[in-house]
TrEMBL record, chain A:
NCBIfam families: 3a0107s02c. The lineage of its organism: Bacteria, Bacillati, Actinomycetota, Actinomycetes, Streptosporangiales. Belongs to the binding-protein-dependent transport system permease family. CysTW subfamily. Part of the binding-protein-dependent transport system for phosphate; probably responsible for the translocation of the substrate across the membrane. GO terms for biological process: phosphate ion transmembrane transport. Gene3D superfamilies: MetI-like. The chain crosses the membrane at residues 28-49, 88-107, 119-144, 150-168, 197-218, 268-292. The keyword Magnesium does not apply. Pfam families: BPD_transp_1 (PF00528). This is Phosphate transport system permease protein PstA. It is found in: Cell membrane. Keywords: Cell membrane, Membrane, Phosphate transport, Transmembrane, Transmembrane helix, Transport.
From TrEMBL, chain B:
GO terms for cellular component: plasma membrane. Keywords: ATP-binding, Cell membrane, Membrane, Nucleotide-binding, Phosphate transport, Translocase, Transport. The lineage of its organism: Bacteria, Bacillati, Actinomycetota, Actinomycetes, Streptosporangiales. NCBIfam families: 3a0107s01c2. This is Phosphate ABC transporter ATP-binding protein. Pfam families: ABC_tran. GO terms for molecular function: ATP binding; ATP hydrolysis activity; phosphate transmembrane transporter activity. It is found in: Cell inner membrane.
Amino acid sequence: MTTLSRTKSSTLESVSAGRKARDRAAKVFVYLAFLLAVIPLVSVLWTVISNGAKRFDGVFLTHSMNGLASKDAGGGAYHAIIGTLEQVGLTTLISVPLGVLTAVYLVEYARNGRLGRTISFFVDVMTGIPSIVSGLFVLAFWLLALGMDFSGFAGALSLTILMLPTVVRATEEMLKLVPGDLKEAAYALGVPRWRTIMFVVLPTALPGIVSGVMLAVARVMGETAPLLLTIFITKAINTDPFSGAQGSLPTFIWDQSTDPNTNAVDRAWAGALVLILLIMLLNLAARLVAWLRKPSSR
Amino acid sequence: MAKRIEVSGLHAYYGGTHAIEDISMTIEPRSVTAFIGPSGCGKSTFLRTLNRMHEVIPGARVEGKVMLDDEDLYASSVDPVAVRRVVGMVFQRPNPFPTMSIYDNVAAGLKLNGVRGKRRLDEIVEESLRGANLWNEVKDRLGKPGAGLSGGQQQRLCIARAIAVQPQVLLMDEPCSALDPISTLAIEDLIGKLKSQYTIVIVTHNMQQAARVSDRTAFFNIAGTGKPGKLIEIDDTSKIFTNPEQKGTEDYITGRFG
Ligand SMILES: Nc1ncnc2c1ncn2[C@@H]1O[C@H](COP(=O)(O)OP(=O)(O)O)[C@@H](O)[C@H]1O
Ligand SMILES: [Mg+2]
């Protein structure tokens, strides 16, 4: 027997019964908290999948509601899927370059200057805008004051107001995490500042920026209120986002679910399932892009 | 290739703090000059004034003159970005670009400055990696990330990256302080080889290293905290380590100080 033997007095074995009990209690508490957090997620997924599966079929994915009354069976969300993809695509196309450039300006150039602080303040204000207000703003400014027509693009404008601040903040956080070492290494090679930002800073921050953008996309994809005011409602397919009313998944779900008959309600659930799947697919695609860009996988 | 550096009356500031005071010295081409002295005496600051990296820090500024052969680096017509292509730098902590492969790390300085042509790049990458004594270890995995190498290999990768842009001068700020003794030896060998082509300046905390690799040694010191750093003396390394002019140098080298 050595000095480390199991004598009560050994300092190496002095973890008291009380400490062990507290450790166990903390563990149980952590697991419980985890379960509590997962319950709503699982229950939402389960409800949407089980209710949505009934109408999640080929007809649903390839047909619009044109010529159908909401009590009729059949029909689908094709017009709404097209609309959502185009509206969110346009939103992303406007928000990401604008948001990333704003973040680059704030982090790399403004350095707490007056203009930087002002922009930062307005980004904070934009973060707090309720989604219906962004819809009302586009309605008042784009549709009423400038006299434009309802369109997918008007919807994209209202979604941009919601997405832009999220992209700016997420990108800002990621840019701040890029080590100063790397910038100095590039400067010391005689690389100008803007090229350093383009080819060293942004690629280093890219995976984080992609995650941030995906969260922002997922968030605006489910927005209903601003779209109701800007794209209006249609049952027909309209592939041109720049003219005329357009469908979208959130407005489709809203429209169908307010109708008290099972055919419409089933379509609403299937629409919700499609929306969740779309967001998941986009997430996977974005992750794939980020992964393909790493040098180890080439 | 290599050029002589002549510094006269150089002061450097961080905002209101006076970091180094009135430094004048000549750095000979095709030789290794070592900077030694206690921490905080301004060795890194002075080194960074030699390729205009000092002014990258907000609020930092420089007064005085740095001549590279017959060009004044601080003349108003001189572009600091162009200076850094001529005077390269290796940092204390190895800092390869994490998103780039080994190949792209070495080619970064060229690619980011618009050099195209795969044949030409291939050539320079191989030449630089050979120059940095790293080619044999990485030639089969040029497409793998640079961050996957060991610390010593990463530092040699950074040296390869610095020499790939074909500078005249190479500044090294404690390039071995984060490395194990074997990797340190590899870098010291490399410095001995590179000095036939470049003007090399190395900051080191290791007295034996200064004695081993350098031809000339400069000793810096500060009078006290908050005071600016000063050049105490610069001379042939053998002279500094055996028979320095200044008492302060002797005290530092024999370990009776700092
Ligand atoms: N980025 C900085 N901002 C403000 N002061 C600095 C900065 N870097 C260094 N200093 C100051 O300048 C002096 C010299 O530092 P440095 O050149 O790093 O010394 P050494 O490399 O000899 O250890 C120190 O007093 C240090 O506190
Ligand atoms: Mg230092």
